[in-house]
Amino acid sequence: MTENKAINGVIRTDAANPIGVFDSGVGGLTVVRALMERLPFEEILYFGDTARVPYGIKSAETITGYACQITEFLLRRSVKLLIIACNTMAAVAYQAVANLSPVPVLDVIAAGARAAAGATRTKAIGVIGTPATISSNAYARAIHAHDDQIRIFSQACPLLVPLVEEGWFDHPVTRLTAAEYLKPVLAERIDTLVLGCTHYPLLKPLLQEEAGPEIRLIDSAEAMAAIAEDLLAETGLGNPRRTAPDHRFFVTDVPHRFQTIGEQILGRSLSRVEIVKW
Ligand code: DGL
Q1: Cα(24) to centroid of ligand 1, in Å?
Q2: How buried is 121 (Cβ within 10 angstroms: 0-12 exposed, 13-18 middle, 19+ buried)?
Q3: Which stretch of 2-6, 62-66, 254-258 has the lowest confidence by average pLDDT?
Q4: Is the terminal CB of the chain with fewer CB neighbours within 10 Å at N or C?
Q5: Pick the CATH number of 110-220 from 3.40.50.1860, 3.40.50.20, 2.60.40.10, 2.60.40.1180
Q6: What CATH number is given for 3-107+223-275 in this structure?
Q7: Alpha-carbon torsion angle 141, 147, 149, 150, nearest 10
Q8: Ligand 1 binding pocket mutation candidate from 31, 133, 159, 197 (most atoms within 8 A of CB)
């Protein structure tokens, strides 16, 4: 890894440097999974703030402080690109992160909004997310930037993140909770449903069953990986090495728990889970 350097105010980073990906917990691993599939030679430094999850029920000020702390941690490790793999942080702290970062910053909301606007035929889209994401209105703004005729029906689902962190991906309690949250959104005859939280793709089969087969689910993780691939190609920052990367995972508490759920999500063993004490 080469240290990032600023030359005449322009940051010089190395294509062999890792990509920094972060979330409040395990949810961002859905983005990591999509990145690993699309960009198998890119090294990933993942940060999951397991000591402070969930973020989505906290204030914008608190979430922004956490996001900046994580950003600084990853920038010190010379990442060449930052991916905010958390809708909640993207919704309230994107600008603060971008202001700190000399390297490009991508976020899941822009990716999900683009995919949703492209997918809808009836121009009626449902968005589910954490309370912080939904009350920020960030999805509505991002989708309307593509098409202001689209009608958006949003629903905060505060209980889903703890259920996912518990590993209850297909549990009757999760099913009942999801059905209750989806009721008002489905009553609006949407044709597209944005999973506006990176934890939710882990519930995709369950959510698809509850929403019905005619509704298209938008998983911002997949859209994010496609955008990252394009950006690396455009900027010449794709890793030229063709060897299996050594991914690293940083968490702020209970690493073995992250490791167990993480291995389930990624379908591979996570040998390098390290604990960070601020
Ligand atoms: N995974 C995060 C998101 O995409 C948030 C989870 C949380 O509430 O911490 O919004």
Answers
A1: 6
A2: exposed
A3: 2-6
A4: C
A5: 3.40.50.1860
A6: 3.40.50.1860
A7: -70
A8: 197
Q: Percentages helix, strand, coil for the chain, rounded to the nearest 5?
A: 45, 20, 35
Distances (CA, A) of 179 to 139, 186, 211, 213: 22, 10, 8, 15
Whether 157 is catalytic: no
Complete DSSP assignment for 13-69: --TTSPEEEEESSSTTHHHHHHHHHH-TT--EEEEE-TTT---TTS-HHHHHHHHHH
> Does 66 score more than 90 pLDDT?
yes
Determine which one of 197, 206, 218, 232 is catalytic: 197
Per-residue pLDDT of 3-31, as tens digits, reads 776 655 556 689 999 999 999 999 999 99
Is residue 31 within 6 Å of ligand 1 at its C-beta? no
CB-count burial class (<10 Å; 0-12, 13-18, 19+) for 176? exposed
Q: Domain limits of the chain? A: 3-107+223-275, 110-220
Give catalytic status of residue 197 as yes or no.
yes
Contact 258, 46 (CB under 8 A): no
Report the pLDDT value the prediction gives residue 1, as an integer from 0 to 100: 64
CA distance 225 to 231: 10
